[in-house]
Amino acid sequence: MLVFAKEKLVFLALPKTGTTALEAALEPMAAMVLRYSPNLKHTPGYRYDKYLKTYLGKCGVKEPETVCVLRHPVDWLGSWYRYRSRPEKQGAANSTEAMSFDAFVADYASDDPGPAARVGYPPRFIRDNDGRVMVDHLFQYEQMDLLVAFLGQRLDKIINLPTRNVSPAADLTLSAATRARLERKHAQMFEDWEAARR
Hints:
GO terms for molecular function: kinase activity. The protein is of the alpha/beta class. It has helices spanning 19-26, 38-41, 45-58, 73-83, 101-108, 122-126, 144-155, 176-185, 187-195; strands at residues 2-4, 9-12, 32-33, 65-70, 137-140. Helix content is 41%, strand content 10%. A 5-stranded mixed sheet has the order 3-1-2-4-5.
């Protein structure tokens, strides 16, 4: 999470949406940087709203706007799948090395996902406890150029994104049946991503 005090902007870092590259580019301009610990770096909107927004207000950052990136659900899951297939994850309970992408997505869309498919839920990241979207500016990962332009304008800076944290290549074949199951089980993910289109 990045806080730009003067510009009254807070960047909420949903995992697997290019956040590492964005942080590398934007960190020098930020007044506050939460990083390293995943629980800090990836502070969700509801936790920010409950704990940090008030603190920022007390520090003079009144009513900052929030921005977050959403990635197409299948591609987002593909990034998680590839990330958890890395050699350093070999033997770990949440490793995906011994499963296909289709099996991984089917597990994610089940009622009780196993350790490998427990990767969070983007709608929960951007919504409050009543289900309302609480992020002011949503962007699609697939339209990163629009996000970069937005941030460049708000921060009055030319932004060049480095390549960071790229997961290894993998076969991301997904059957029509599994995709349909994902779309039924987690329709909100697809709806939120569509709503972020500009």
